[in-house]
């Protein structure tokens, strides 16, 4: 399913410009913040926390957040997609490091099982973009999302090696078109 940006903002509100890092556009940050405010999460999980700037943006949007789990690769690890090699952060989660409630899981997400993660109200999937990793992270997200929570994926696009689109399209074909792309962005969301 696709929702026009204007329709999305009419439904969820436009929070205006948001500070953040280089991985999301301003419109994408607005969408993420609007969804964050909508669910008022207590617990957030971010696959691919990188330098933590998006985590800081999400945290600023929701004073309700008590616990934020960021997942990323240890320095020197090689992502499945060579094109993501330059993304492995020098200091994972730096922008929120030391903040009470922030927990960093420094491991390849494919090694995680549901019991390693808390139940969460907002789960942002933006780690490894290869199909196998997105599929695995998505399965973890469905296992740990709370009722009323939201799962958000980044990088739904037509770049062949990026598996987000295939994963989302398969979900929509088999589970009733419930993942929604915000037009003009690479963000998809679903209320499970
Ligand atoms: C596009 S960046 C994330 C950007 C971040 N979410 C933001 O909005 O600023 C992708 C991140 O995923 C991490 N990553 C790639 N493959 C991973 C994997 N298999 N497990 C955990 N993290 C992974 C990379 O190290 C990188 O930090």
Give a verbal description of the structure.
There is one protein chain. The protein has an eight-stranded mixed β-sheet with strand order 1-7-8-6-5-2-3-4, with helices on both faces. It has five helices and eight strands, in the order βααβαβββαβαββ. The protein starts with a strand and ends with a strand. The chain has about 190 residues and is α/β, with parallel strands linked by helices. The protein has a single domain (about 1-190), classed as 3-Layer(aba) Sandwich (Rossmann fold). About 30% of the residues lie in helices and about 20% in strands. It binds S-adenosylmethionine (SAM). S-adenosylmethionine binds near residues 24, 53, 54, 87 and 89.
Task: Give a short overview.
The chain is α/β, with parallel strands linked by helices.
Task: Work out the number of β strands.
Answer: 8
C-alpha-based Rg, rounded = 15 Å
**Mean of residue pLDDT values:** 97
Look at the helices and sheets and give the structural class. Answer: alpha/beta
- Into which percent range does the helicity of residues fall? 25-40%
* Apparent shape: globular
Looking at CATH, which topology would you report? Rossmann fold
Q: Give the amount of beta strand, in percent.
A: 15-25%
CATH level-four homologous superfamily name: Vaccinia Virus protein VP39
